Amino acid sequence: MFSGVRRHFSYANVVATLAMVFAMTGGAYAASKYLITSPKQIKPSVLASLKGRAGATGPAGAAGAAGSAGPAGPQGPAGAAGSKGETGAEGKEGKAGKEGKAGAPGSPWTVDGTLPPGKTETGAWSMDYQPANESGFVPISFPIPLAAPLGEDHAHFIDPGGKEINIEEEEVVSPACKGDAEQPTAEPGNLCVYASLFKNAHTTSGEIRDPGELVPTGHGQTGTTGATEEFNALAMREKAIALGTWAVTAESE
After folding, report:
1. What is the pTM of this model?
2. Residue ranges per structural domain of the chain
């Protein structure tokens, strides 16, 4: 019968009930003459006996709404490098590219090419004959061949005095050879052979020939790869010595 009532007792109910009883009786207890206004005035053992057991825990409430996202945390340290992956399969060959523009001419000129029009090349020559020899030939080779041989009267011998000795063995001023042995030059379409030393020897411009011809067909001319010049000794008992430089210039366009 009292089990239902006991379940509803609590500390607060007891205190409130006592306060109400004392209030109804005038607020005073005649035997002790005390006015109870606070639970602290009641003996703890009495309060403990009046205090009921704790009720059972109720069911959990529904979950609240999700809160807003917090700020991003700081970036973590870099991870260790991963292991090298396997080599992939070879790709397909790409399409052939477009042909590039032609490059500039090589320097001085391309292999197997010829001396360009108006360009000059130079070299050196020498001869040394023993007294027993009456005459000999001096080769003049062109490192870069000419596109065509130089015709008759286009090869000139210039003595140390700067004069040309022509086929008539006359000393004349050559309009085709304006340089000297130190700075050999030649006008386009001409070969100029300059002598810096000329001792006990004799030659003329007419003795310059195309070395490709066994029997000369002209005088004062060249082949495409060079020329030969014949020198004669003046005195058989003396050594014949001569040396110098040369210049050849290709025909202008």
Report:
1. 0.59
2. 3-50, 120-249
